[in-house]
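Cont'd.
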Amino acid sequence: MIDPKFIKEDIEGLKLLLKKRNMETAVDLDRLKAIDEERRTLLQKSDELREKRNRLSKEIGQSKSKGLDANELMKQVQGLSEEIKQYSEKLASLEQEYTDLHLSVPNILHESVPEGTDEKDNRIVRTWGEKPHFSFKPKPHYDLGVDRGILDFERGVKIAGARFYLYRGLAARLERAIINFMLDLHTREHGYTEIFGPFMVNDESMTGTGQYPKFRDEYYRIERDGLSLIPTAEVTLTNIYRDEILESSSLPVRVTMQSACFRREAGAAGKDTRGLVRVHQFQKVELVKFVRPETSFDELEKLTGDAEEVLKRLNLHYRVVLLCSGDTSASSSKTYDIEVWMPGMDRYLEISSCSNFMDYQARRAKIRYRKEQGRKPEYLHTLNGSGLAAGRTLAAVMENYQTEKGDIIIPEALKRYLE
RNA sequence: GGAGAGAUGCCCGAGUUGGUCGAAGGGGACGGUCUCGAAAAUCGUUGUGGGCUUUGCUCACCGAGGGUUCGAAUCCCUCUCUCUCCGCCA
């Protein structure tokens, strides 16, 4: 949610924002503005009536305690109450519509975000390492894994369905090693606290981070219990402080958590159907930060660097891409994608996405902090990024470290985790 | 899953014959006095969100949502969560 002052004071600015984001039809801003004004008028009127009712009711109490007759007053207040009720009903429906529209307004974009319509306009900001050379034609991880007997897609499909898979032996051990390596790196060297929390969350949490109410079909929900399987540990981590006020001295808070992630991949039919690229369940190490507003864009650079460090230590060639205005997700103000080179697939593959949400998510989830004692609480800024997607990292290691005979060399950084 | 108890401000905790209760009291935190300084003592301040004609006025919030009433933290209904006992269990 953006600061409501934008709706009140700068509707033209918001129109421009929608245009930049290539989503002009997503929100009826004129309607939003009109509702905002109408509800404020009604609110004023209704507050006046309530004030009167409170005052008269007090008088009734006083009269009665003196043994005086208050019937006349009581009749008057009864009428007031009727009127107030009508106003509340009108207001409630207006508030509802206002909130729905407010939630649909995307986040303000940072000035450094390039204008553009889709991924073609994203800007490569840096590249690390080089594409490895092979004296043979490197295989994509799915062929390599199946040939080697460590990836089993047929069994995954039998057990659960399309887009499920099974790791056997080395693949399973390698992914576990990758996860441990990443968690150790982030906790020992980057200052994150390791968290282990729920993989299933309630609707408040899904709403807090923005999954609900809009993109309901993209997630698995267990109706009977009102719980949803998390699509990322971002949900668990960000909701740690939902509805709370933190002390300024405790910021920044840095947390990391490894989790399984569940995605329905609705609308991705026929896309990336092979391999570990797009599946319904995968593991990921997530990074989340809660920071003071004035530091959040610096923190985004550091967070992205924390994720990049994983690839550096694994000696995997990658590039960092700054998403353009049309490709940046609605809740993000600025996003970097990290794309790792996949020699077998002969393409770069997104392995991490790091975003600064500024106060957009914090406002929604009511996460605030107190600048100093006695001051009003303010919304803090939240950031998150994958550090990294474990399944895709496994695939990248397999493709980059394969030998002609179909073996996989263990990267130096992972050796101690596989002994 | 069965039986019972409870949910109040940063924390503890009063308030349940409905009225001047946004809420006593204690603790904590912050500020002042005292002191060379500190402790102790003492005085004061200390919830959140909204509206407006914004050094002020006002509305809402006592787990959440409904209801009764002129008026509800206080009465009624539903839900959620917590605790205790029993059952089950990695």
